[in-house]
Amino acid sequence: MTVATVGVHIVDVLARPVESIPGGQDTHLLEQIRITAAGAAAGTAVDLAKIGVPVASFGAVGDDELGDFLLMIMERRGVDVGGVVRKPGEQTAASILPIRPDGGRPSFHVPGANLGLSPADLDQDRIAAAKVVHLGGMDVTWGLHDPAFYALLDKIRGDGAIVTMDLLSNMPDLMPAVRSFLPHVDYLLPNEEQALMLTGAATAEEAAAALVAEGLRGALVTLGGAGSLVVTADGATTVPALDVPVVDTTGCGDAYCAGFVAGLLEGRDVLGAARLGTAVAARVAGGLGSDAGLDGPVHAD
C-alpha cells in the first residue's frame, strides 16, 4: 500500500443520456447504464488502482447486497478493501445519476453507512503506514470530526507522509465543520463552489489564497471546463482543462485527486501533479462513471 483513501464509499447507478424523467409508467430507452464504485474515497481509490498506484481504502458500508457489490468491484479493480467495515442494519450509500446529454449529473442520494464512520472503525496503524493519506468526503463523515482523528493526521504528517483532502457535497451547512481539518492537511482539492463557501471569498483565487494562508501547502480548486487553479505560497497558476468530448462529469473530481496524488508520488512538483490530475480527469469525462477510460497509463505531457 502506497496510498490510503479514507472516507466516503458509494455505489453509483448511472444512466445516459437522460433528457427528462418519464411521466407515469412511460419508458425512455437509453444508450447505457452502469453500476460503479464511487464516492470521494472509494472512487479515488479505484482510479488510483487503475493507473497503477497501490492503494487501500478505509470506510464503512452496510451489511447488504450493495455493500457486497461495492467491495467486489473495488477488489476487482485492484483496491485493498480490508479496511472497509460492514455496519449491520445500515444501508450502503448509493446514488442514482441520470446523466444529461451535455454530461451534467443531477442525483438522487442515500448517505447510508458513511454517516456512522468513526475513528474506532479505522485501522490506524495501516493508515499511518501510507506515503499519502487521501481524505475523501470529510464534510459528510461526521464521526471523523474528532480530536483523536486529527491527532492521527498530525502523527502521519509528522512521520513524513502527505495528507490530501477532497469534499463530497456543496451544502453550505457542512462547510464550517470542514474548516477544523485544515490545520491537519497539506493539500485541499475543493471545487469552486466549495472553496467559496469555505472562505466567503468572492473569487476562486481569493478563496484559494485564503485557504493557503491558513497553513495549507497548496489549494487546488477545480473549475470544471475551465481547468483548475493551483495556489501555493509561491503564487497562483491556472492549469487548463484538456479539450475532450464530455460524456459524463461524474467522478472527475475524484479522478483529478487520483492523478494529483499519483503525480506527487512520482516526484512531480505541485503543478506537474495537477497536470497529471487534469489528464486523468479528462479520461474519466470521456465515458460513463467515475472510473471510465482508465484502462492504461495516463500521461500529462
In short, what is this structure?
The chain has 301 residues and is of the alpha/beta class. The protein contains nine helices and 13 strands.
Provide a count of the helices. 9
**Structural class category:** alpha/beta
Number of domains: 1
Count of DSSP strands:
13
Task: Give a short account of the largest sheet.
Answer: 9 strands, mixed
Main sheet strand line-up: 5-4-1-8-9-10-11-12-13
Q: Give the CATH level 1 class.
A: Alpha Beta
Percent of sequence in beta strands: 15-25%
N-to-C series of helices and strands: EEEHEHEEEHEHEHEHHEEEHH
Give the distance, in angstroms, between the N- and C-terminal Cα atoms: 26 Å
Q: Portion of residues in helices?
A: 25-40%
Our Rg estimate from Cα atoms comes to: 18 Å
Per CATH, which architecture?
A: 3-Layer(aba) Sandwich
What would you say this structure looks like, in words?
- There is one protein chain.
- The chain has 301 residues and is an alpha/beta fold.
- It has one domain (3-17, 31-285): Ribokinase (UDP-N-acetylmuramoyl-L-alanine:D-glutamate ligase).
- The protein is built from nine helices and 13 strands.
- It has helices at 42-50, 65-77, 124-128, 147-158, 175-178, 192-199, 204-213, 252-265, 270-285; strands at residues 3-7, 10-16, 32-38, 55-62, 80-87, 94-98, 108-110, 132-136, 162-166, 187-188, 218-222, 228-232, 235-239.
- The chain has a nine-stranded mixed beta sheet with strand order 5-4-1-8-9-10-11-12-13, sandwiched between helices. Strands 3-2-6-7 form a four-stranded mixed beta sheet.
- Strand 11 and strand 12 form a beta hairpin.
- Helix 1 packs across helix 8 (252-265), helix 6 crosses helix 7 (204-213) and helix 8 packs antiparallel against helix 9 (270-285).
- The radius of gyration is 18 Å and the shape is globular.
